[in-house]
Design a protein that fits this description.
Length: about 100
């Protein structure tokens, strides 16, 4: 299953602290937070408004939620299950 995560970091001093915390992490640090049950397909940051989006693949919503719990104290997050083009087309064809 694929999940789209969007986030925003509220205005205030925490914005820069959060960016520094993330910037000081290595890819290995981030992977350790994700664990073995979560794969990141991609992540994009919009630094002017301090928002972003990431797409993850996981067998369960619990794996995504576990990762997001590392960040939800500093940013507002939304998690939405999503389909890729192939999955969407297959679903559309199955509907007749």
């Amino acid at each position: 299953m694929k999940f789209m995560v969007t986030w925003s970091i509220p205005e205030g001093e925490a914005r820069h602290d959060t960016l520094k915390t993330f910037s000081d992490m290595t890819a290995e640090d981030d992977q350790a937070l994700m664990g073995d049950s979560l794969t990141m397909i991609g992540r994009w940051h919009e630094l002017v408004s301090m928002t972003g989006v990431a797409v993850f693949e996981a067998d369960s919503a619990a794996a995504v939620s576990n990762y997001i719990l590392n960040w939800n104290h500093v940013c507002d997050c939304d998690v939405t299950p999503v389909l890729d083009d192939e999955e969407t087309r297959a679903l559309g064809r199955s509907r007749g």
